[in-house]
Design the sequence.
């Protein structure tokens, strides 16, 4: 599965369009991480736990999207965009969408 | 003497936290900026553009998506400064540097991934920021910001 966020796949030709595909996941941080982040918040700096959490969830959203594209018979997803929204206290929704295509 | 201290225990804790936030926070920020500068100099040869590229056929070997993110939190002292700033309005410098650090770190991580996988250029860079939870300035909330950078890395054919 080739993933790009430009409208084509550089070096390849699009032969078929399948329409949009999307994947999303809602994640909450757990208490331990929250506690550590609260402590870290006193001195500032990077919150590694949150960085990893968001990275993992975004990978999850992308893999769901890729799975959907694969079921349609596509071999690439172009024009991928990410969006984030906080739906509830302490939880975040990570959303990825793009256009499924077949390239040669 | 100890009696006075005990009576004003919460004030004392507040001052200790403030001092801790100020010293540790400004040290961490300086260290972070130094490392950002160093790595930016290392990766200066890898161009990143916000435009989509058109390449002649046969030039590009493969392309893939790369991304990088960073969650940076603000320290106790700067948060207080920002709250005070809210009264008078104007530039909130402490938050400016926070967002700047997060963004540059995210771009650097993206570039590092692109370089590790052999990319020669990154196209169509997009930047996004978000907060976890709600507002960054509320009480009992972690004042942090997430920056995400993503783009398409292309690997060129060697001739």
Sequence:
């Amino acid at each position: 599965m080739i993933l790009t966020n430009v409208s084509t796949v550089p070096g390849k030709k699009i032969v078929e369009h399948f329409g949009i595909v999307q994947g999303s996941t809602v994640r909450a941080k757990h208490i331990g991480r929250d506690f550590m982040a609260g402590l870290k918040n006193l001195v500032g700096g990077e919150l590694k736990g949150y960085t990893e959490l968001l990275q993992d969830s975004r990978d999850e959203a992308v893999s769901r999207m890729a799975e959907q594209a694969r079921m349609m018979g596509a071999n690439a997803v172009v024009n991928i965009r990410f969006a984030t929204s906080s739906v509830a206290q302490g939880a975040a929704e990570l959303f990825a969408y793009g256009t499924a295509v077949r390239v040669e | 003497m100890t009696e006075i201290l005990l009576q004003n225990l919460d004030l004392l804790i507040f001052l200790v936290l403030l001092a801790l936030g100020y010293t540790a926070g400004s040290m961490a920020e300086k260290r972070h900026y130094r490392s950002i500068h160093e790595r930016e100099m290392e990766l200066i040869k890898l161009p990143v553009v916000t435009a989509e590229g058109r390449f002649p056929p046969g030039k590009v070997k493969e392309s893939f998506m790369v991304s990088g993110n960073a969650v940076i939190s603000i320290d106790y002292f700067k948060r207080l400064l920002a709250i005070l700033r809210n009264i008078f309005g104007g530039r909130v410098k402490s938050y400016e540097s926070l967002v700047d650090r997060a963004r540059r770190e995210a771009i650097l991580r993206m570039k590092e991934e692109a370089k590790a996988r052999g990319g020669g250029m990154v196209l169509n860079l997009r930047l996004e920021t978000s907060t976890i939870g709600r507002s960054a300035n509320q009480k009992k909330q972690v004042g942090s910001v997430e920056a995400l950078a993503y783009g398409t890395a292309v690997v060129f054919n060697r001739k």
